[in-house]
Amino acid sequence: MLTLGTLRRSRLAGAAALAALGLATLVTATASDASTPTKGSISDTNPVTSWGGGPFVAANVTAQANGTPDCTVPQSCDDFTLNVSTPAGYGTDHQLKIDVSWPNSAADFDVYVLDAAGNVVGTSASSADPEEVVLPPTTGTYTVRVVPFTPLGQSYSAKAQLVGTPVSTPGTDTPPGFTNYAAPSSFTGANDAGEPSIGTNWKSGATMYQAGLSTFKAVFDDSTSPARATWSDVTATLANGCPQGDTTSLDPILFTDHQTGRTFESQLSGQDSLTCWTDDDGTTWHPSQGGGIPSGVDHQTIGGGPFSANGVGALPTSTYPDAVYYCSQDIATAFCAASRDGGTTFGPGVPTYSLLDCGGLHGHVKVAPDGTAYLPNKACGNNAAVVTSTDNGTSWTVHKVPGSSSSDADPSVGIGSNGTVYFGYVGSDGRPGVAVSHDHGQTWTDQQTVGAEFGIQNAVFPAMVAGDDDRAALAFIGTPTGGNYQDTANFKGVWHLYVATTYDGGKTWQTADATPNDPVQRGSICTGGTTCGSDRNLLDFIDATIDDHGRIQVAYADGCINTCVTDTSETSGAGPADAQAAYATIARQSSGKTLFATSDPQPNLTLSSLDVSRTKGVYTAAVRVSNTGDSAIKAFATQVTDNGNQVGSTTGTSLAPGASTTLRYSWKSSGTTQTVTAVVDPQNVIAESDEADNKAQQVVSQ
Predict the structure, then answer these.
(1) Fewer Cβ in 10 A, N or C end of the chain?
(2) By C-alpha distance, which of 512, 519, 609, 607 is closest to 552?
(3) Quick one: pLDDT at residue 65?
(4) Helix (H) or strand (E) run with residue 7 in it
(5) Which strands make up the sheet holding 552-558, listed edge to edge?
């Protein structure tokens, strides 16, 4: 985010908020106890050790200055010495996990792990309870430092354990391919596009892209391969009907309702938003109230979809068919307000949770085909969660995602055509994860990590989108480099945009590198809010959508452009500007299965030629088969008959798109005139784009 970034880092959810809620009960200021015990050991044969400390009263907020706490004041930090002993190769399938929790989740502690040389090798400084650090289980001596950020008189309990690595189930489908499209450099804000959002108008085919004060439109021409993009700057201004348009912003957000074609662009104003909507892809804009009252101060999101049958629907004066939601984070909760007239006005803001339920920031609100609204949250206790409303925003319920863990990354949901919910997140171990729900988030299945094909060890900015009920995609920025990715001085990871897709309802996922020849970032990526330095150029999130053919489109800010693409010495921390960019870019699917099965690329078997010759009573048929379609054929059959009698056949042949193969068959015949017929896919088991070109015939006479 542009100002508050994360409420956790600006620490607005502190004792003042708790006092307002009547939750803060401070104890007499006394010196806290040292950790008990002060040290412990774990190994492959003794994998768990526990300790505790407190109570704590005085807050230590010094880490806001430079990212590390100052522990010179007595009782401002609590240290525990952890000895780890593991055999060689143990880290292949194991992790070191450290959890720190406390009774009152409204309090807040941070955790820092230092190696024997005093270097910080792991940090968990979110608003989650518990805080969790996951590291490689490398033999050595570590200091686990617990810092009472907002202690509220609480004591903490801690546990270090060696655990197995999360499961990953890569699929066997071919991942989709992507083409990247950068906005014209002449556009204002083209290189100031951190945390973009994206939407597609299925009526017009236009793609809308929002970042900063700018709104761009891209129209793709698929008559060529790859498609050509035509960009337009359609920023909302006074001149085109939006007096509050490009005037000021704390955060930008955009949402396009696929079905109606209406697009909203919103600029956070503090206690609400400056919002306008368009029905003609930005040619003209119309003012909106912006959100409900009360409203939050940060992290706003707009979403929409059908009204639920379980709640109040549209206003009698409105002809707009869908509900529109405005949600934003406040100090102690998030408020969501529903619009019943197409986003022109909004009802009152409704609290979705309290600090007793969730402490982390929420992601983007999505609406299912049955009208259920989903607001993902990154830290509800020790899990990520979705907060759901089945009554058009009148009430909200928190559903944790078991197996997930909290982190600095906003989670994301995508909803399939029949209501299946796909949840994407980044765990406390830095790896991207997914889970699936078929009952509005009440229970979850197929929880697993993704990106194993590329060895992803750190990820940020998960963005989920779904199409058919059994198809979804998770986009994220990831790197195979492990360690503390926010360590500006020492982290040297190379980050790319990855997209993991499922075509079997989330049982398996296959991952594609959408930017294989162009890093999105070199060096560190800071997700710590306003305390960050130059490596916060990408800000807090990316976004994903699909067009009317189910093609995946991802909006991201490219942080490594021009010389940075090839110069490995350039990093986000050291610069120069090319390595600290935020260039407006869309990754658009250009090959492979889409998220709509009806739009999948199909093969096309063509029997392009049949040549029959005869030598000394032996006939030979040369059958030329081509795949003129857009996808590969793993196996197909070919049959040759002479006067109706089979004289040759082949099965199991594969053929790539655009490829051809010649199959030869020989047989003896005593007849004087032969009608030779060749058929490819004789049983018609392969779905093709053209079924009428699979047969050829030739009459041969002596």
Answers:
(1) C
(2) 512
(3) 63
(4) helix 7-10
(5) 177-182, 583-591, 552-558, 543-546
Average pLDDT, the chain: 90
Q: What is the pLDDT of residues 462-509, one digit of tens each?
A: 999 999 999 999 999 999 998 889 888 889 999 999 999 999 999 999
Please say whether the beta carbons of 362 and 334 come within 8 A: yes
- At residue 183, what are phi and psi to the nearest 5 degrees? -65, 155
Q: What is the pLDDT of residue 408?
A: 82
Cα dihedral sign for 509, 515, 517, 520?
A: negative
Residue with tokens 């944790």: 400
* Contact call for residues 266 and 216 (beta carbons, < 8 A): no
- Alpha-carbon distance of 612 to 668, in angstroms, equals 13
Q: One-letter amino acid identity for 650?
A: T
In the chain, how long is the greatest CA-to-CA distance? 112
Model pTM score:
0.84
CB-side neighbour CA atoms (13 Å) of 624: 9
**DSSP string covering 414-478:** EE-TTS-EEEEEE-TTS-EEEEEESSTTSS-EEEEE--GGGT--EEEEEEEEE-STT-EEEEEEE
pLDDT at 365: 98
| pLDDT tens-digit readout, 338-366 | 999 999 999 999 999 988 888 778 999 99
Report how far residue 533's alpha carbon sits from residue 525's, in angstroms, rounded to the nearest whole number.
10
> Whole-angstrom Cα distance, residue 466 to residue 597?
12
Question: 253 with 4: CB under 8 angstroms?
Answer: no
* Gap between the Cα atoms of 432 and 477, Å rounded: 9
More confident residue, 249 or 686: 686
Q: Residue 575's beta-bridge partner residues?
A: 571
Where does residue 84 rank: exposed (0-12), middle (13-18), buried (19+ CB within 10 A)?
buried
The token pair at 483 is 């360690």
